[in-house]
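COMPLEX REQUEST
Ligand: 3-hydroxy-3-methylglutaryl-coenzyme A
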Amino acid sequence: GLPERVTIWEVGPRDGLQNEKAVVPLEVKLEFLDRLAGAGLTTLEATSFVHPKWVPQLADAADLLAGLVPRDGVRYPVLVPNARGLDRALESGVGDIAVFASATESFARRNLNSTVDEQFAMFEPVVTRARAAGMRVRGYLSMCFGDTWEGPVPVEQVAAVGRRLFELGCEQLSLGDTIGVATPGQVEELIDAYAAAGIGVDALAVHFHDTYGQALSNTLAALRRGVSTVDSSAGGLGGCPYAGSATGNLATEDLVWMLDGLGIAHGADLDALVATSVWMAGKLGRPSQSRVVQALSG
Ligand code: HMG
Ligand code: MG
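STATUS: Structure written out below.
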């Protein structure tokens, strides 16, 4: 059944901004993070310690962490792909990281310059060292439902690659519909495949992009299976520069509207979120894609 409470894993500052062509000024990123924390969100994925040429928008990760004034009770996880990224994250005093794997060979090559096996060889020392340093480690798995180059991805393949992230020592697995093609039946099927492999919903999160308008429906399917951590992006910003056809993430405001309607607790203040996304839209020079932001700010 439905969870009583959902943890919103806000990815706007990372997934939301990584695809923006024009570099967003550091002060704007810092204010964005502060406003999101002020709106009651408690997990803010802040940035990525990836190669600065691969994602120029997030090349300022160390400066961002240096300028961040952390709020009590808020976690600021960052993406880390390899040992160099972990070194940089440790230098910046980061407490939580996420590694990010691909379920398919095509996307592993494009996003990480690796094969599926090589990505695990890259992550293994990262996760081991991060855990030894007392960090929390999340694992992302991309292309869980469909892949730009390979088409539909078999559920057994996704279950098998995802299991390897737990074997490495990840505490949570976020199932990514990187290009936003999934439909709710597929979501149920994948969650059931994990359950059959001994991985329960408490260890899972869902990460939907809204390219085909299915993100909220897919989220509801996951909630009905009992998943209680949902990734979303304020204003529906986002997309992966290496995924070919990804648009924005599920909008945090759209998620909050649905959770409120279902009576599921989440701790966020919708008005403050909408105000933040309207402010951010002004900075980016285009309106928010979120229907709830549009409805409440019209
Ligand atoms: P590579 O070119 O194979 O790197 O990239 P390399 O290991 O061969 O190293 C080349 C040079 O880069 C070396 O420098 C390294 O030190 C340097 P040199 O010795 O030549 O002077 N280097 C670094 N510098 C700074 N920070 C680092 C770093 N690593 C190496 N971390 C690499 C491999 C993994 C680095 C690259 O492919 C990369 O950075 N990829 C990241 C791509 C990315 O960020 N994609 C978006 C996030 S994933 C996503 O959005 C999906 C998600 O939202 C879920 C979903 O929607 O499905 C999470
Ligand atoms: Mg994503």
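REMARKS: The mean pLDDT is 97. Residues 109 and 115 are 6 Å apart (CA to CA).
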